[in-house]
Design a protein that fits this description.
Keywords: ATP-binding, Cell inner membrane, Cell membrane, Membrane, Nucleotide-binding, Translocase, Transport. GO terms for molecular function: ABC-type phosphonate transporter activity; ATP binding; ATP hydrolysis activity. It holds the Pfam family ABC_tran. It is a single chain. The protein is an alpha/beta fold. 33% of the residues lie in helices and 23% in strands. It is built from nine helices and ten strands. Helix 7 links the parallel strand 7 and strand 8. The longest helix has 18 residues. The radius of gyration is 19 Å and the shape is globular. The chain starts with a strand and ends in a 29-residue tail after the last helix. Bound molecules: adenosine-5'-triphosphate (ATP) and magnesium ion.
Length: 270
């Protein structure tokens, strides 16, 4: 499905992403981990074409993505929706309108100016909010919601585009452990029930292990690990984070581990 080959992003002399290659054969939930500055966000931004690659190739279902321009690029961006740590909602706008923003790509300027949405889109938005457990919040302003609720609104906005891929850049980094779990559960469910590929940058190891089928570890722009959560031992993690023997997993951990999650993958001992 997705082939990333020798992907590189240069900022001056700095290689933010350096010769990264990986393939995804079927819709998978993938976690990308690595210390701050490793290149995780840059990689996601290139996948989504928010940022242009300096070198290398991205193909999806055989089509080259890195060279798409104009309408074709926008079409790609709606097939791989992106969600962000800071939700990127319009705070003063109501929840439903925020979700309907996910259809902007295919609406006319005039319809957008007058805030005209087809009834079927409004129904779809409410259905998606309902699925995420926040239909009751639909008429409220986005700013009146908790962080976890706002992130679910952002997920709803992404789902409005019916994307094949959801890219999530630190989706739970601003949330408390309870809300982090709700949001990760929602992403996992969307992956399992809809068969969408999810690629999430995660700043904690335990979340990546717990929710993802596959983990990619980045260090200094390079992919230094690509495997299953079971293969991600403490030794491997130490290498990814470039830490010494005093490396403690707790340093990359949230309290999410202490919350119960049925059917959770077992955590691999050191
Ligand atoms: N627009 C830019 N201009 C110059 N350098 C940049 C730019 N964006 C990112 N970088 C650099 O590229 C490297 C990778 O940054 P990136 O944001 O991808 O890291 P990250 O793994 O997402 O880190 P974090 O965990 O802090 O979000 C860093 O050294 C960063 O300073
Ligand atoms: Mg980042």
């Amino acid at each position: 499905m997705l082939h990333v080959t020798s992907l590189t992003k240069r900022f001056g002399d700095k290689r933010a992403v350096d010769n990264a290659s990986f393939e995804v054969g079927k819709p998978t939930m993938i976690g990308i981990i690595g210390r701050s500055g490793a290149g995780k966000s840059t990689l996601l931004r290139m996948l989504n074409r928010l940022s242009d690659a300096s070198e290398g190739s991205i193909t999806f279902e055989g089509a080259e993505i890195t060279t798409l321009r104009g309408a074709a690029r926008r079409e790609w961006q709606s097939r791989c929706a992106m969600i962000f740590q800071q939700f990127n909602l319009v705070p003063r706008m109501d929840v439903v309108s925020n979700v309907l923003h996910g259809t902007l790509n295919r609406r006319s300027t005039l319809a957008t100016m007058f805030n005209l949405y087809p009834a079927q889109d409004i129904h779809k938005a409410i259905d998606i909010l309902d699925r995420l457990g926040i239909a009751a919040e639909a008429p409220k302003r986005a700013q009146a919601l908790s962080g976890g609720q706002q992130q679910r609104v952002a997920i709803a906005r992404a789902l409005m585009q019916d994307p094949q891929i959801i890219l999530a850049d630190e989706p739970i980094a601003s949330l408390d452990p309870m809300n982090a779990q709700i949001v990760m559960d929602a992403l996992r469910r969307i992956h399992e029930e809809d068969g969408r590929m999810v690629i999430a940058n995660l700043h904690t190891l335990d979340t990546a292990r717990r929710y993802c089928d596959r983990v990619i570890g980045m260090r200094d722009g390079r992919i230094v690990f690509d495997g299953t959560p079971e293969q991600l031992t403490t030794g491997v993690a130490r290498d990814i984070y470039g830490a010494g023997a005093d490396f403690s997993e707790a340093a990359t951990s949230t309290a999410i581990e202490t919350l119960d999650r049925p059917n959770a993958a077992p955590v691999v001992p050191a």
